[in-house]
Specification:
The radius of gyration is 22 Å and the shape is globular. The longest helix has 12 residues, at about 95-105. The strands form three sheets. The protein has a seven-stranded mixed β-sheet. Strands 7-8-9-12-13-14-15 form a seven-stranded mixed β-sheet, covered by helices on one side. The chain is α/β, with parallel strands linked by helices. The chain folds into two domains: about 5-155 and about 205-305, Ribonuclease Z/Hydroxyacylglutathione hydrolase-like (Metallo-beta-lactamase, Chain A), CATH 3.60.15; about 160-200, no CATH class. It contains twelve helices and 16 strands. Bound molecules: zinc ion. Zinc ion binds next to loops.
Length: about 300
């Protein structure tokens, strides 16, 4: 089981040599996921050695260019390299036509299937679910319709207690049900209570992503108790007027959201290019929420290590 995020772009609308526009790669239980795809994302994927042909789910938060202008380029490169495995894109409804038109204008036919799932800003929406994980979207407060995303591991299996099992000679055919938290009856009619033969499951990890958004307490129920929260912090408090005007957040506001949502750890990103250093973002946030990290391009965070 693995669950990590790699920041591919930590900057805001204006790219700099140090900070690319927004994109993140998430590796979760053998799923390869991309969230947002700012300009130059395919180069960042190469730079950080991420096997981008394995990416099969791409989530786009909103249609500001710094969050999706890299998507046509990435899909085009996947095509040129002979991809035949489909890609599913989750994003605002207009994105489907935008991509279609772009490829049609250039006479480029994608040789793989592009599935499209439109997102909605009407509350929480389940976008993807399998045996191990669930991915949901939820509304943010920005100038155009924008959603955040949460990747949540489902409850894991109970762990067998080898000593208890050996002592009572529990046959192997019951292990499967015990691990699921069931209490089967053996051939002698005795109930094998799973609490006696197992340890509790390991904690389920979750990652929540909030970019871009004004300070918005309504999003708290959707991100509550996340192992890791990424929240944009385009500005510092001294530019709070500008933050309000542009529907962005300050470092302090992001940290208050992290505190109120009772998350384990916070990573701040989408930093405006007006700031040459990031110490002020960190110190401003840590007054409210100690366990804060500032995103850097290439930063990898393993959720198992911060849990
Ligand atoms: Zn935006």
């Amino acid at each position: 089981m693995s669950f990590s995020i790699t920041i591919l772009g930590s900057g805001a609308a204006l790219p700099t040599g140090r900070r690319n526009p927004t994109s993140q790669y998430i590796f979760c239980n053998n799923r390869h996921i991309l969230i947002d795809c700012g300009e130059g994302t395919q180069m960042q994927l190469r730079k950080y050695g991420i096997p981008f042909q394995r990416i099969s789910h791409i989530f786009i938060s909103h249609l500001h260019g710094d969050h999706f202008f890299g998507l046509p380029g990435l899909l085009s490169t996947m095509n040129l390299l002979g991809r035949n495995r489909g890609v599913t894109i989750y994003g605002p409804a207009q994105l489907k036509d935008i991509l279609k038109q772009l490829f049609e204008c250039g006479g480029q036919k994608l040789m793989f299937k592009l599935n499209f799932i439109p997102t909605s800003t009407d509350g929480e929406q389940i976008l993807f679910e399998d045996r191990l994980i669930k991915i949901t979207s939820f509304p943010l407060k920005h100038r155009i319709p924008t959603t955040g995303f949460r990747i949540q591991e489902k409850q894991k299996e109970y762990r067998l207690n080898p000593d208890a099992i050996e002592k009572d000679h529990v046959p192997i055919e019951f292990f499967h049900r015990l691990k699921k938290g069931e209490s089967p009856t053996n051939e002698q009619g005795k109930i094998l209570n799973f609490t006696k033969y197992t340890f509790p499951p390991k904690p389920s990890l979750s990652y929540s992503y909030c970019s871009d958004t004004a300070y918005f307490e309504d999003l708290i129920p959707f991100i509550e108790k996340s192992t890791l929260l990424y929240h944009e912090a385009t500005f510092l408090e001294k530019e709070s007027d500008r933050a309000k005007l542009t529907f962005h957040s300050t470092a302090k506001e992001a940290a208050i959201i992290a505190k109120k949502a009772d998350v384990n750890h916070l990573v701040l990103g989408h930093l405006s290019s007006r700031y040459n250093e990031q110490d002020s973002h960190l110190s401003e946030a840590q007054i409210e929420f100690e366990k804060t990290t500032i995103a850097e391009d290439g930063l990898k965070i393993d959720l198992l290590k911060i849990n």
